Amino acid sequence: MLDPRCPTRQLLDRIGTKWTSMAVKVLAEEAPGELRFAELRRRIPGVSQKMLSVALQSLVRDGLVARRVEPTVPPAAHYRLTELGLSLERPLSALRVWAETHMPEIDRSNQLADESPPS
């Protein structure tokens, strides 16, 4: 994993942002259907238009998300997970379960570290 060519490291570099993993989760909930950009943004509290756009562009480039544009004025972009993207949801879901289970422990550890005098 220390080697920059390590597949795990490369994948985490691509999907490791909170907005990217949240976009995958929301699209997985809609699968096999698709969502418009505005609906995706509405379902991901706190994400800016720019950050969601960057996350989706990266997911499309990596083949995890498909983008379809309706030739309307203004154009309407629709997004859906590809088969490859759907296969990523299970490991991300396991990570979410782990985080929900263990974040209280991590928070307690951080609190204790913050309260302890520096060594």
Automatic annotation (TrEMBL):
GO molecular function: DNA binding
Domain HTH hxlR-type span(s) in chain numbering: 6-107
Alphabetized UniProt keyword annotations: DNA-binding, Transcription, Transcription regulation
Pfam hit, one: HxlR
InterPro entries membership: HTH_HxlR (IPR002577), WH-like_DNA-bd_sf (IPR036388), WH_DNA-bd_sf (IPR036390)
Highest taxon, organism lineage: Bacteria
Family annotation (PANTHER family): HTH-TYPE TRANSCRIPTIONAL REGULATOR YODB (PTHR33204:SF37), TRANSCRIPTIONAL REGULATOR, MARR FAMILY (PTHR33204)
Name under which the protein is recorded: Helix-turn-helix transcriptional regulator
Species of provenance: Streptomyces boncukensis
